[in-house]
Amino acid sequence: MNSVEFRAVSKTYAIYDSPGDRLTELASLNRARRHRDFRALDDVTFTVERGETFCIVGQNGSGKSTLLQVVAGILQPSSGSVTVNGRVSALLELGAGFSPEFTGRDNVYLSGSILGLSTRQIEERYGQIESFAEIGEFMNHPVKTYSSGMVVRLAFAVAIHADPEILLVDEALAVGDLYFRQRCMRKVHELRARGVTILFVSHAAAEVKAIADRVLWLDHGRAADLGDPERVVGRYLCAMDEKDSDYLNQGAGARQRREAAHGREIVDAIPNIDRRHGDGRAEVLGIGVFDEQGQPLRLLDPLSRIQVRISVRARQRISSPIAGFLMRNQLGMDFSGTDTAREGCALEPLEAGGVCTVNFHIDLPELYPASFSFSPFVADGSLESHAVCDWIDNAVALQMGRSGGQVYGYVHLPCRVEVNARMAGREACPTGGPIA
User: Fold this and answer.
1) Which pLDDT score is estimated for 288?
2) 56 belongs to a structural domain
3) Mean predicted confidence (pLDDT) in 13-26
4) How far apart are CA 86 and CA 83, in angstroms?
5) Which letter, b or e, does each residue of 89-116 get, where b requires 16 or more Cβ atoms within 10 Å of its Cβ?
6) Is 193 in the same domain as 228?
7) Do 353 and 407 belong to one domain?
8) Single pTM value for the model
9) How far apart are CA 19 and CA 16, in angstroms?
10) Rounded to an integer, what distance in angstroms lies between the CA atom of residue 294 and that of residue 343?
């Protein structure tokens, strides 16, 4: 018997341009149509076998969370049929079902009751829940005083100790620290071994490939692909790379032109700006990531050599310009970075209107497969004391491909292994000296 079965499932929402349109439609008993339909799910069909780990990938807004909410019974499909066989434990949103005024302990009993556990069953498991959550004295404090990470710790601890037959996880672990994420992933593997059916939504390609038996790729509410994790995730990442490339190629900002005076390529594309700050005396014109031959990269390869090219322009005279970048991982953690001052490359002063392009040649280590962003900047001064003229957060983001072997943690350190000679059937001297 299948745990979950979707047959031609669609979920449609009515979108109104204004509250008045909704009122007009209601007053006319729906004869005056004032809305347009938005299909969050569009004719989706699949089955999940009992004990299978089924992952869903896709862009934000592709219908992943809606799909899990339909499985959980929170939403009803507009058309099609959904069959769910088994007790469902859902971790869909941070603290969903938690009362912010109640303590963590009170919320354990509240959530456990919602999941179908008796008071006695909750009391028997309370110690395990408290131990797994590891939030200490905060168990006796109101949940409104918790950080987002503490909320997800407690929510996950309750969900996995409710003896679920079907576990739904929607990107909730993204806010956890590395230590807790690793513990959660081990618990997911443990639940898999016990035959629990798992539906898992994540943007982390490495996690999906590590735990999934099959993967569903949703694109604008429709099933774009379904099947083997390596193939489906690979197609999904390629599609995202192509979309990013199309964005880069739009408009005049994507052109690269030659600087006649110096014969250096100027990059004038800034693919993304999450935040920009600085005193404005100079600006970052563009940033690009290229291979050794100068071709734009869509995917980073471990153990390869890349070029990070940054072009800057002075608006006023900059006596001691510094150009560089910061590299972040998909969790927003500052992972690495460098600049011309750090590398001992002093740039000539820039007069107002002057342009300079800097190429950073980087040998990538063997990094875990995740998304990495580059934040370029230009400053004036020295390594010890400088003023930021322009800084752009997360201007370029690229996915790191998979390496030949598994990467534990963040990076595989270059290592030389040496095995000391052993002598079989002989006993070492008690003094530790040479064997006679």
Assistant:
1) 92
2) yes
3) 83
4) 10
5) bbbbbbbeebeeeebbbbbbbbbbeebe
6) yes
7) yes
8) 0.55
9) 7
10) 21
